[in-house]
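A quick word before the example. In earlier lectures we treated sequence and structure as two separate objects. From today on, think of them as two lines of the same record. Here is TIGR00370 family protein written that way.
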Amino acid sequence: MRFLSVNADSFLIELASLDETLALYSRLQNVALQGISDLIPAAKTILVFFNEIETNMATLIRQISTLEISSLLEQNAEEVIIPIRYDGGDLAQVAELQGLSVADLILKHRQSTWNVAFIGFAPGFAYMSSPDHPFTDIPRLQVPRKKIPAGSLGLAGKYSGIYPKDSPGGWQLIGTTSEQMWDLQRENPALLRPGMTVHFEDVTHHPVMIDVPKAISKDISTTENTPKKALFKITAPSLQMTIQDEGRFNQTNIGVGTAGAMDLGALHRANRIVGNPKDSAVIEILNGGLKAKMQDSAVIAVAGAIGNIHVKFADGQKADFSNEQAIALDTGDEFHIQSPSQGLRQYLAVRGGIQVEAVLNSYSFDSLAVLGPEPLKIGDVIYQADLDLGNIQIYETPITHLPSVGDTVELDIVMGPRTDWFDDASLNLLCEQAWLVTNESNRVGLRLSGLQALSRSITHELESEGTSIGALQIPPSGQPVLFMNDHPLTGGYPVIASVAKHHWDLVAQIPAGCYIKFNKIKDFEKIENGQ
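And the structure line, produced from the sequence above:
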């Protein structure tokens, strides 16, 4: 067991096998050590997040190192039976690769016990492994399919997996199921979660039953989201307008990440200015451009990237307001959040809050998982929520400087967890070289480009492991990708270091065309067996 540093509030546990990983994950869930806030299991690792106020890495390492774990999973794991029609297009090909007949391949697959190891790739996509080891590693397709239908059962490596929704993929398809792997209407949207035991039932030759959905009667007058007051209508869009709050927490066991406002400080300031609870939903605006016409009176505030808000009042008068202040508007007034002179993302808060439906306890849109309220568009009307309000703040201290195109931004980094996969020259180059933020950057991550690429000293494939906001993942190109709020929960490329938490808000405000210099503030820590 090795412990590898990740960030101030996280570290990676590396184990010898998938079975050992599953056993430790089960044990950690049962003992509930103080301060652990989340766990992301993967092939041979567990990413541990903790509350820095309640505990620290050294304490948790000592506690985890003393745990007794069996190579066998707990016997009280929840069991699920999934009906499968073994009719996949790659069935014959996989059977040939395994030196089996199609019938024997099906028999071995359905007679094996499968355990949900971890969730990755997409919400509800469970990587299932079998302690029976029925097959040798199965290669992925050389050319991935552009679209695999939801419910398709595939094999790759040592895993079985069922696609929860239509998506591209390279797994070898051997069957289909009519079970819904992902359904937001269920109490637990993901049918399969880490630690579960799965058995497959062969229904290939059974009649296919079609469920007819029952009509659901709903009294709209009693629903939580009945419109209360129309505030404004969007008349011109920005490049991207999404609803965001602080994000989703404790949903990684179903494959859902945090998402949330990229610049949390700006989210909090905008809400404080208008008197909302600081974690209330706001509109995150990429590079300005949003125009709207008031449908009623309201108080708004814009925080984050530095720029002007141009207002045309209903009586014909005009005025410009700086951001980070309360702006009172009446019916018929129009406002235009102009492109910022510094920074990239602006946050629009409305006194009383924005009425929107929560998805998994958050109002945030996740661009990778395509989860949460849909991005806003021209013609959309924003309605007021009914929040408990405080006083409007007129003394909020604004941010006075943010990056502009061409600037060089310095970011602090913590080394790990895969620092030792890179040679000394690359470790030096990471901090000595300036990295261009390319146009291929979004809420998932910033793609960086340097004159010299980084080189790995360990070149074999890295099995999927948990990742976090701020991670600097190094793909085969040697050009880093800086993961941000909508990043995938697991990744298969080594992470050389992570941007320190105190600079995450700054990363959200770095436009393409800027350069980044990394400043190492903490060396890589590697601890064997807690020693």
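Notice the following. The domain at 408-528 is CATH 2.40.100.10 (Cyclophilin). We will return to this example when we discuss secondary structure assignment.
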